[in-house]
Fold each of these.
Amino acid sequence: MSTLALSARDSSTMLRRNLLHARRYPSLTLNLLLTPIMLLLLFVYIFGDALSAGITGGAPDRAAYIAYLVPGLLLMTVGSTVIGTAVSVSNDMTEGIIARFRTMAIHRGSVLVGHVVGSVLQSILSVVLVSAVAVAIGFRSTGATPLDWAAAFGLLVLFALALTWIAVGMGLVSPNAEAASNNAMPLILLPLLSSAFVPVDAMPGWFQPIASYQPFTPAIETLRGLLLGGEIGHNGWLAVAWCVGLAVLGYFWSTSKFNSDPR
Amino acid sequence: MTNLAIAANGLRKSYGDKVVLDGVDLAVPDGTIFALLGPNGAGKTTAVKILSTLISPGPGSGEIRVGGHDLAADPQAVRAEIGVTGQFSAVDGLITGEENMLLMADLHHLSKPEGRRTAADLLRRFDLVEAASKPASTYSGGMRRRLDIAMTLVGSPRIIFLDEPTTGLDPRSRHGMWQIIRELVTGGVTVFLTTQYLEEADELADRIAVLDDGKIAAEGTAAELKRLIPGGHVLLRFTDPVAYQAAALALPDAGGDDSSLALQLSSGGSQRELRTVLDRLDRAGVEADELTVHTPDLDDVFFALTSRPLENVR
């Protein structure tokens, strides 16, 4: 077998192992899924009227606010899921089995690739579940063509891949699960500081750069444009650039951490 | 000379200022059991980690060959030859024993039926059939260790590293593990074993190296090492001072401690040596209240080799 075939085979073995973990111990994944769903319901049913009135300056329009909110929450779901990735990578590294893997003649990267692919699949599953809740409470993707949906799906996968590689790196540098959870916290806090809940224009002037120049805002604006048929403009390229940049950074960070001597 | 399964020259490793291995030479012939004996913190685990490619050797180390391959140049070739069972069990606690075995079969690229057969065989051989469908985290210490070794054997490694395979096991599990290790070498496998127990090295190993403070303090067969140790002695205790005095006269070469009424006599502990002592006491008409035979142990090895006591073993 060629090197590529061998590495694919080892990676798929590792993926099966991670999916087995996730299937057998789903509580972590489900707990992390609660955060975006609760925020969705909270912002729609509790703050929805006030926020929609504040944003438009007119009468409260909850339906319009659902439409505004959902794209951001879908990306926040990805951020929330990858916290689980950081925790499970960190847990895994403290297990003796990883030392065993390191002394076996397997493709070295397969351990991390298994985590990454497993985590991206979990992110997609979580996004589908949150979407279902969103549709159930009245979200409709109006004016989107199948091509837009395909692009939206592609963006979510790319975004999940980028955040997952970063989360894997965070998991690798964390000595235990608690530290991993804390280190990965920005991944769920960043969407709160983005255009997910209110437009950047509605924020105080000094804060607007913080909200604008971070990965979530362009990704959210792009997803919003794709799902609701609005203007995307330069946000599309920005979102892709952020994703590729973070994925590459996370990949090199994680592999160099994993390849250095374990303590 | 037979081929060497492991040949390491000047193995060095330090963490910051702390020197863990300070120029260790190892030579293990094919198909033998080699024991690295030493107390906690002597560097045994570090040596295993380096030889099994888990960590890189420190700067200044000489050439290291494992299974005929250069460790630095071709670690993957070394990995293909070895199996490692670490001090902390290297099993995946979240999945079942059988799933652990099948995971190993997949990673060794066995076909599905071959993997299933190998897993089933090894689970049977290591008495884990009943536990096979339970998560490994629920296993007892002995069961985990057996699963660990069973997983190591899936790839039929030629060289097996066992880092303190019996530490923390009860006596029954320990003897079971010894039996397993003996069976391994009958198939031509080389075993590199670390242990804190002289008894264990004595039971199993063809050659023993005593590692102390990052250096090899002595190396040889169990018999050769024991000859280095003058530690064996017979201890006689008395309650009656008169009997003590009489015994001291009857055994002029014994060292006495007048305050505790104890006599100490160096002896290998053989039947003949003991009979001589007892005959002399009988002729003098004295009877000791307590007689103990002290055989050499790791403490004595260390007293003899390094003339300092062990801190961790007692």
Note: Chain A touches chain B at residues 1, 6, 9-10, 13, 16-17, 20-21, 24-25, 95-97, 99-106, 261-262 (CB under 8 Å).
Amino acid sequence: MQAFQFDAVTLPPEAEAMRRRVRAFLAEERAAGHLSGRGSWSAFDPEFSRRAGAAGFIGVTWPREFGGHAQSFLVRYVVTEEMLAAGAPCGAHWVADRQSGPQILRHGSEAAKREILPRICAGECFFAIGMSEPDSGSDLAATRTRATRTEGGWLINGSKIWTSRAHRAHYLIALVRTGDAGEDRHGGLTQFIVDLGQPGVTVRPIRNLAGGHEFNEVFFKDYFVADDRMVGKEGQGWSMVTSELAFERSGPDRFLSDYQLLAELIDRVGKAPGERQAVEIGRLVAHLAALRRMSTAIAGMIESGRSPGVEAALVKDVGTNFERDLPEVARRIVAVEPSVDDDEDGFAAALADVELHAPSFTIRGGTREILRGMIARGLGLR
Amino acid sequence: MSSEISSILLDQADRLLAQHATRERLAEADEGGWPEALWQAVEAAGLPLALVAEEAGGAGLAAADGMRLLRRAGYHTVPLPLAETMLAAHLWAAAGGAVPEGPITLGPCNEADALTLERAGAGFTLRGRLHRVPWGEQAGHVLVHAVDAGGTAHLALLAHPRAGNALRRNLAREPRATLDLDGVGVAADAVREAPPLAAAGLLELGALARAQQMVGAMERCLDYGLTYANERKQFGRPIGKFQAVQHMLAIAAGHYAAAAAAADFAAQEWGSARFGFAVAVAKARAGEAAGAVAEAAHQVHGAMGFTQEHPLHFATRRLWSWRDEFGHEALWQERIGRQVCAAGGAALWPMLVGA
């Protein structure tokens, strides 16, 4: 079977050197009380992002002329996995660093690159994702938000939904319709950088089931966007969004969302676990070790210029199922009633947080059903 | 040996196994026959000595390449103690012994069995009994791990003691024999101090081999399943067009990929300080995947896959056996769990990344 390949990767010395730097940085953050030790990478903390940017942990692979650090994807991989494992609050800069910045770097105008990328690297400029719409979630080809030509640019009308952190981000990259879909339904889509501080765009909060305000609905009414804010060429949106999603799906954030809960579970169970506790924890760790191995292989593929579409979908499917499994195992082997406000029992609070957010793990960035369709196509099922 | 030569050797081995491990021979082995012609072909190609150093007359394959060879053997469901012979030959040569011709098996093969070694004149006497030794009846030699009164681990190479063996077969009808070695004498020159890799026993190496074989057999199951899903038509179209079938195979592919990654990890850690952890990860993850992949492969094949006529069962029956041999998932999971819990939550991440 030649459908996919996960070649073993040995992390180079510079990646391990970077690991030491990140750990030293995180130790200082912890000492200064900036890391709760809990919470997932999606926690939004602009001050943390600024310090991470100043320390050189954002835009790791980007060219120096745009504020980046010209390092390999394997070095970047180590930065992200160390941040995630520590439960560092990376939510403010995560999307910009992971996917928006790379899109602008590869397909953006010179003006956009010069204006935006250095600020992302400094941890001062945050992005949201403008893909889903009320009638277009998994089926992005059904995008209806439209941009029409006007003097010097375009006018956007329509709305986006499930836009995480749009109320705190500076920009989003919107996928909009600029022409006919064509027979394959993939034509006529274009991406634009939208400045969320400009008139013509309003953000309405949508509270999630955990009571949090993370995602939003974003409305455009005659929102003007200049020509040089187009990312890529007119009508190229589909292929760009596809490659952007490969970035979004491939990283360790797809199996480390609730890693902190595993570490807490181990401490809660204690040094002398019962047989069943040891078996269940061992099973989780075996899954995690395999996932990390698959994920480093993907970083190696990106580094060598290959596009790991099917592999990324596989890791996200297996990885997010692991994330969903973790709280279920935790509650099976430790008798604890999760509580949303128990400030005496950290484990009960951590479990509550993960249980309430777990449904999103297998939806965001592409539902597992969409991913399994992609995997099946990659396997050659016609 | 250079990686290029290793790749050529592996490709040759793959073709050889595909050519000689025919379904007629697999069926004969099912009936209890020893596939001598297949063994001759494998031995002539030098595969049993793949992991023996070139100076000692072997192919000198790197451990990771040797594990790739075992995957191919698993893929072709080779009904021979090839993994056992490769490991035994490697260990005996590493201990300074001269490797005999013919198939060699090894033991103990499970956590409950253990052998001790007593001084007896110029030689030694073994104490204990080994259960479910692969091809224990057919192999010419048995390499056993035994501990002496001082606690030192030894390897002893026995010309096969045939008497008094309870012969059993696993789900794939591969021979598994109980060897009563209590009181069996061993000459001094057939006993050597165990090399570090085998000091704690043979369970880890056996589990590593079974993990690789399972990855190969899972790949075979997926190949069968994908081919069948694209060929078999129902309701006017290939069943692979149905989302339910697609998702079943996608989930199975995820299990396979994770098992392969875990097995790669263990192969890479061969002999390192993390070897025990990595082997536990590999056997636990591959064993879990084996059940899931076999189930999906059968479901895709419908009644056809339940027949003796379709060759799917050569792979799935081995998966169901191999996942339980050299420790089932729970044994290895428990080992990981105890190690991780003893170290505490903060130590897990460095353990995972090895830094």
Note: Chain B has a mean pLDDT of 96.
